[in-house]
Every structure is written in structure tokens, then in C-alpha cells.
Amino acid sequence: MKITSARFVASLTDVRQLPTDGLPEIALVGRSNVGKSSLINKLCGKKNLAFISSTPGKTQALNYFLINESFYIVDLPGYGYARVPEHVKAGWSKLIENYLSNREQIKLVLHIVDARHEPTELDKMMAGWLDYFKIPYVIVITKIDKIARSKITKQVDMIKNAFGKLKYCQDFIIFSAITGVGKNELLSIIEKYISS
Ligand code: GDP
After folding, report:
1. Position in ligand 1 atom list of the atom nearest CA 40
2. Of the four, 11, 99, 131, 161, which is 20 to 30 A from 93 by CA?
3. pTM higher than the cut 0.80
């Protein structure tokens, strides 16, 4: 699949505001600063489509991007940013929970993790949660350019092992918003799920 058009359509803070056009949705989850905006920009071939935030945790809404006039990429609020007050954090997780547990249009979730680190407890919880709600997802291991070539296999195995047994995980994909590695693979998977 080639992305020929991509535009930001809305930033929503309430599930009652979600689009009613029935188009398929690909949702992105991951901890704050993991590289979700960079991934969206890279996939769409646009530099500033998704704002690359210098303040982690700033995105507090569901950000809708209309792709090829035929499906949405939905960027969810990043989780796990420490410097946010508890009540704000609670609001975010409620929004994420409401959206993921009820939204039938979600065809696939891209669960983004950082190649440099072992998955956090929240990363593992998110995977467990997607399994619980029976939502298919791929785990995207991003910032792979930060790992020495000779260490990539070992690092990816470490991340896979740390997640343990997952039910609805369709695949692990290594990605870099810098080099573009993984971009075509990700686009193929998205294409498959939006037409399923
Ligand atoms: P978000 O908060 O998840 O949307 O994260 P951003 O896309 O804003 O990225 C957070 C930081 O990580 C920024 O400084 C990005 O330039 C950097 N970053 C994101 N993706 C990559 C990547 O694939 N490789 C490298 N080296 N840096 C990345």
C-alpha cells in the first residue's frame, strides 16, 4: 500500500465525539515519548503531520488522521509519563480504556515499544489488556537505529521474552523513523487489516 493522502482531522477527548462514518481505524498505543508521532510522520511521508512533541505526555486526546480518504490512524495518549498529576493520568487511561474496549472500527492496534529498553510494566499491561479485549495488535519495536547491528537479534529476543506469551499479538516489527526500516512491512500489515 502507498499512502497518497494524509491529513489531521480531529483531536477528541470524549468517545462520544468519535467519527460516525464507519471507516476502519488503526490505533497507536505506547508510552509517552516512545516515538508515535515520528512513526506516523514516517509512514505518511510527511514531516509535520503528527506533532513531534518535545514535552512528553502533552497529547491528551485521541488524534485522528484520515489516510487515503479510506481509513483512520488514531494516535492515543501516551501513557506512563511521571510528571503528570494523578487525576490527569486517570483521565487518560479512562479515555484509552473506553476507546479500546468499545470501538468496533478498530482493525489493528500498533503497540509501540522502545528498542533500547526492556518493556515496562505498563507496556506489558497494555499487551495483556489488548489480549483481554481480543483486539489484534502488532508490537512495533521502534528506534531500532539506536541498537548496534550486531546486537539487534539479541535485543529483539529479549523484548519478545519479556512480553512472554501473548494471545492476540500478530507479529513483532522492527522500525526506525530515521532509517525507515520496517515501514513497508507495517504498511502491508495495515493494508491487510483495514480490508479484513
Ligand atoms: P511520541 O511522544 O511518542 O509521539 O514521540 P515522538 O515521535 O515525539 O519522539 C520522541 C523522541 O524520540 C523525539 O526526539 C524523536 O526524534 C525521537 N525518535 C522517535 N522515533 C525515533 C527513531 O526511530 N529513531 C531515533 N533515533 N529517534 C526517534
Report:
1. 7
2. 161
3. yes
